[in-house]
Amino acid sequence: MQLPLCAEALLMAFASAFSQPTFERMLVIGVGAVLARGWRTVTNIVWTMGELATGDCSAYHRVLSRAPWKLLLLGRALARLVIELVPDEWVVVAVDETTAGHKGAKVDGKGCHHDAVRSSHVHTTWKWGHRWVVLAVIVKFPLAARPWALPVLAALYRPEELNRQEDRRHKTPAQLAR
Known about the structure:
Layout: H1 5-12, H2 20-35, H3 42-49, H4 57-65, H5 71-84, E1 92-101, E2 111-114, E3 126-139, E4 148-157, H6 160-165, H7 173-177
C-alpha cells in the first residue's frame, strides 16, 4: 500500500512490533480508521479501504484478536514519537491503575480488585474484572490549556492467586509499571 508521505514515517515507526503480514494489515486498519466515517469497526474500516484491503475481512479481525504483537516494542516506538513532540522539556511519566469490570466464567485474568473511585474511608468497594496498569507520558501542547497524558503502554495485573494457580511469577502493579 502506498502511504501518504506525512503518514509514512509515523506508521513505519511501528513496523518492528509486528510480523510483515500483520503489519501490512495493521497499516490498512490504521489508515482506514482515519478515513472511515461513522463507527470505527473493523468491518467498516475494511469497507472504507475497498480494494486496498486485500484478502478476507476475517484476516483483519484476527489482527486485533489473535495476531502476536511485541507490545514492549510498540510501546517504546509510541513513547519515542510522543517524546519527540516535546524535545526541549523534561519528560514526565504518569502511572495509573484502572479496573475494567468483566464478569463471567470464561474471562481470562480477571480478579476481585479494590475500586479506589467508589471506595471511601468508611466503605470499601470491590470490583470483578481486569486491572490495567497504564503508563502515560505527560505532554504540554502549545495550544492546549493544560497538559495531556498520552498512554503509551498498558499491562494486565493478574491476581496473586491466579498467578500461583498458573505457576507464573507474580508482579505487583509497581513492578509492572517499572
